[in-house]
Amino acid sequence: MAEPGATILAADGVTLRFGGVRALTDVSFEVKAGEVFSIIGPNGAGKTSMVNCISGRYRPTSGRIRFDGADITRMPTRRRAAIGIGRTFQNLALFGHMTVLDNIMVGRHHLMRHGFLSGMAYWFGGAQREEIAHRREVEEIIDFLEIQHVRKAPAGTLSYGLRKRVELARAIALRPKLILLDEPMAGMNLEEKEDMARYILDLNEEWGMTVLMIEHDMGVVMDISHRVMVLDFGKKIAEGTPEAVLADPHVRRAYLGEADEVVSEPEEALAP
């Protein structure tokens, strides 16, 4: 496992094409262990495409992705989860008919060692003890995210903000080294955003998880990120501390929609 400050994730020249369309073009960056690293940019800039390449949902057309020193460019999604990469989705992907508790238990699936045969002998083997241990972990996560009151409720009956918490809980249940958060604040009110920001900071500072986050709320990005990368039309246009990135004129044009400054000519120079 990467030591704090060492590189835990590295993208090297990642390009992603869909037919004749380039979603990403030669994107390179590194994420350090123990930091909150945010990717920002306008809609269609390639942010989710980059996260999908890291999680294994997409395979880059060219370039490499390394995690914890290993090349994972062609590694299956399931294997990436097993080595410590967890994620949430921009569009909620919960099982609406299942309880909150059961949804979170799904996140422990990759950590379970007992299979079908040991499950048949549940009451006589280690499967029961294993399930009890996993449930303790899940209950700790439920307490952390303050969703005890809905633990037995079907996920589909919850408010949007609570469902976002449950999805975060399921990603945390994997106990990942790196957690990928795709717009965790989207659709939330101010109070819900403040709560989610606090949970993310606690995951990073107290639970020791490295966070890579896509987020449109610039206030949140500036408040909780250690470093920020900006994409525009699939290309990296800036990377650095939040303050440096926000001050970058290319970022202000691309992301904030500010026009180039126009320097007017002196009046005498315009005279005939």
List the topology elements.
Elements: E1 7-18, E2 21-32, E3 36-40, H1 47-55, E4 62-67, E5 70-71, H2 77-82, E6 85-87, H3 100-106, H4 116-120, H5 127-144, H6 160-173, E7 178-182, H7 190-205, E8 210-214, H8 218-224, E9 227-232, E10 235-240, H9 242-247, H10 249-254, H11 267-270
Parallel strand pairs: 3-8, 3-9, 6-7, 7-8
Antiparallel strand pairs: 1-2, 1-4, 4-5, 9-10
Helix pairs in contact: 3-6, 5-6
Could you describe the 3D structure shown?
The chain is α/β, with parallel strands linked by helices and 272 residues long. It has two domains: 1-84 and 176-262, Rossmann fold (3-Layer(aba) Sandwich), CATH 3.40.50.300; 97-173, no CATH class. Helices cover 36% and strands 23% of the residues. It has helices spanning 47-55, 77-82, 100-106, 116-120, 127-144, 160-173, 190-205, 218-224, 242-247, 249-254, 267-270, and strands at residues 7-18, 21-32, 36-40, 62-67, 70-71, 85-87, 178-182, 210-214, 227-232, 235-240. Strands 6-7-8-3-9-10 form a six-stranded mixed beta sheet, sandwiched between helices. A four-stranded antiparallel beta sheet has the order 2-1-4-5, covered by helices on one side. A hairpin with a 2-residue loop joins strand 9 (227-232) and strand 10. Helix 3 (100-106) runs parallel beside helix 6 and helix 5 packs across helix 6 (160-173). The N and C termini lie far apart (71 Å). One of its GO terms (molecular function) is ATP hydrolysis activity. This is Amino acid/amide ABC transporter ATP-binding protein 1, HAAT family. Residues 9-258 form the ABC transporter domain. It comes from Belnapia rosea. InterPro entries: AAA+_ATPase (IPR003593), ABC_AA/LPS_Transport (IPR051120), ABC_transporter-like_ATP-bd (IPR003439), BCA_ABC_TP_C (IPR032823), P-loop_NTPase (IPR027417).
